[in-house]
Structures are given as C-alpha cells and as structure tokens.
C-alpha cells in the first residue's frame, strides 16, 4: 500500500497531527465540533471527567467521559476552509497508521456532531429555537475540489436551486450532502428540521449590507422561498455542507445542530445566546451518553 509522504500528512515532534495537535490515542470516537474556541470549555464542563486538553492555533480540544461514553469537544474556528483541515485530520487520526503512513485496512467511522450558531431564514423558525440540518447545501465551493457524487434527486434539487436563486457559476457551484440518518433520528423532538445553507462568509455571502453593495440583493428572499418536494431551507451558517460532504466521503456519521441566534426575516437577534447554546450542548451530550 502507498506510503503518505511527510509533506502530505504533517506529524509533529510529539507524534501528533499538525493542526489539531492530537495523537491517535488522544481522540474519542464521539466528537462535538464547535466554531468558537471558548465553547470547548462550555462543552467539557458537563463531562464527568476530563482526560486531556490540547491546543494549537484555534483548534482547542478537550477529551473526557460523559457516563461511559468517551467524547472529544474540538473547536474548528469559522468556515469551510477550517473544516477541510479538521475533518481530514480527524479522519487521519483513526484511519491512517502514523507509523507506516499507510491507510489502515479496517476503517473507523466517527460520530461527528456540530454544535453551532446560525441565522434562520424562516418566520416560523424563531430565535432561540434549534434546527437539526437534514442537508448541507454548500455555496462555499469546498467539495468541488473533491469527487463528491450527488444522486439524481440531489442533482435535481441543485438544478432547481440554481434556477430559483440565479446564483450562477460566476459566484459558485452549489453542492449538497445529507446528515447521517442514524444520528439525525435522535434529534427530532424539540428540533426544526430542514436544509441548512452554508456560506463562505457572514456578511455579503449571507446578504448582509453594511457599507458594501452585494451582487444578489434578492438572495435572502430566494433562499426563504425555495422548496423542493417537502424540503425547504431553514437556516444558514458557515460549516455544515463542508462537514456533511467530507464526512460522507470519508465514511463518518455527521450531524449539524444549530442554535438559532438570529432571524433574518423578523430581523431579530437572541437576547441570551449563552442559555440557548448551553441547552443544545446538554441535549447533545444526553443523546451521546444514552443512545450512542
Ligand atoms: C459566524 O458568527 C459563526 O457562527 C456560526 C457560523 O457557522 C460561523 O462559524 O457557527 P459557530 O457558532 O459554531 O461558530
Ligand atoms: N452564524 C451565521 O453564520 N449567521 C448568522 O446569522 C448567525 C450565526
């Protein structure tokens, strides 16, 4: 089997993968990703015990136990480019032998749950509610660098989306990937479900106008109005499609959970983001502890 060169998979002097600064034995197979490095503490404060803590750049990780389940909480920073690093390195930690630098003959699937904040695109998905993303629809282009194959229904949805939004190839080639059904099924009661659109920025790419004009002023309305069969877009943020696309290609079980802090239709922002995030973290850990 082919050996992966030092330049392609960088392992530091501690024997840890370069960006995440984690060795294979320092990662749990149940993983919670958060955008904000400070949020890792909020997750691990609910652990029954903490085994290890590491940091390199914006990638902070705490690993410990919730009941009998080992969990790693790790920060990704903002955006799909960071997700490219995090998903590839998490996968390398379980599926590449760091001694031989070869892909292991038996592959491991990780459970990866994003606990993030998000903006709602629907009036009936108010601030302080929670969304479990059935799909990640990427406007960020990351998965166009990989060989993501979309099925017939996904291709039809994308075609209809491009026609409806008028987002042409000067801006992006949208892609779509879905949540792991086996993880999503645990997040039904108390959660809205819908398509989450992932944007490569917070301002222009999410239709926010401060001082700069934007190419597609109709974008928010078009996203809100879009339907395909029983599917509609509930919200947008900046990581879900990248997690779903790479997770699917690498064989991991991924879910994105969104704490709705802004409603772009009602033009509201939550008064207590911390309370909402704590609730989502506690509910996620409860599912991991009881059902995984
Ligand atoms: C933007 O403020 C950030 O918040 C959302 C977006 O996806 C983006 O990362 O998620 P997090 O709260 O997890 O960072
Ligand atoms: N995160 C985003 O990306 N957008 C929002 O509107 C809120 C949180």
Automatic annotation (TrEMBL):
Domain Nucleoside phosphorylase stretches: 31-275
Record Gene3D superfamilies: Nucleoside phosphorylase domain
The cross-references to SUPFAM superfamilies, in alphabetical order and at most eight, read:
Purine and uridine phosphorylases
Q: Give the catalytic activity.
A: uridine + phosphate = alpha-D-ribose 1-phosphate + uracil
GO MF annotation terms: uridine phosphorylase activity
| The protein's Enzyme Commission number | 2.4.2.3
Q: Which InterPro entries match?
A: Nucleoside_phosphorylase_d, Nucleoside_phosphorylase_sf
Pull one GO CC term from this UniProt entry.
cytosol
Sorted alphabetically, the Gene Ontology BP terms of this entry are:
nucleoside metabolic process
PANTHER family named in the record: FI09636P-RELATED (PTHR43691:SF11), URIDINE PHOSPHORYLASE (PTHR43691)
This protein is called Uridine phosphorylase
Species this chain originates from: Flavisolibacter ginsengisoli DSM 18119
Lineage, please?
Answer: Bacteria, Pseudomonadati, Bacteroidota, Chitinophagia, Chitinophagales
């Amino acid at each position: 089997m082919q050996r992966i060169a030092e330049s392609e998979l960088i392992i530091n002097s501690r024997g840890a993968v370069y960006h995440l600064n984690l060795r294979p034995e320092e990662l749990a197979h149940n993983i919670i990703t958060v955008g904000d490095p400070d949020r890792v503490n909020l997750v691990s404060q609910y652990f029954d015990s903490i085994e290890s803590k590491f940091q390199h750049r914006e990638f902070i990780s705490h690993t410990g136990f919730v009941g009998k389940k080992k969990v790693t909480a790790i920060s990704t920073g903002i955006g799909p480019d960071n997700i490219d690093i995090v998903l590839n390195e998490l996968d390398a930690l379980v599926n590449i032998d760091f001694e031989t630098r070869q892909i292991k003959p038996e592959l491991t699937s990780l459970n990866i749950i994003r606990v993030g904040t998000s903006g709602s695109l629907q009036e009936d998905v108010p601030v302080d509610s929670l969304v479990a993303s059935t799909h990640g629809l990427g406007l960020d282009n990351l998965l166009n660098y990989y060989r993501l194959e979309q099925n017939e229904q996904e291709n039809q949805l994308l075609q209809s989306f491009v026609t409806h939004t008028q987002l042409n190839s000067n801006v992006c080639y949208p892609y779509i990937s879905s949540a792991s059904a086996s993880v999503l099924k645990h997040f039904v009661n108390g959660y809205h479900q819908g398509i989450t659109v992932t944007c490569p920025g917070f301002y222009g790419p999410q239709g926010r106008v401060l001082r700069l004009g934007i190419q597609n002023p109709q974008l928010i309305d078009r996203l809100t109005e879009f339907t395909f069969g029983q599917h509609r877009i509930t919200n947008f943020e900046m990581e879900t499609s990248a997690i779903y696309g790479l997770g699917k290609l690498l064989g991991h079980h991924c879910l994105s959970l969104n704490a709705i802090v802004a409603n772009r239709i009602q033009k509201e922002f939550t008064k207590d983001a911390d309370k909402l995030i704590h609730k989502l973290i506690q509910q996620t850990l409860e599912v991991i502890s009881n059902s995984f």
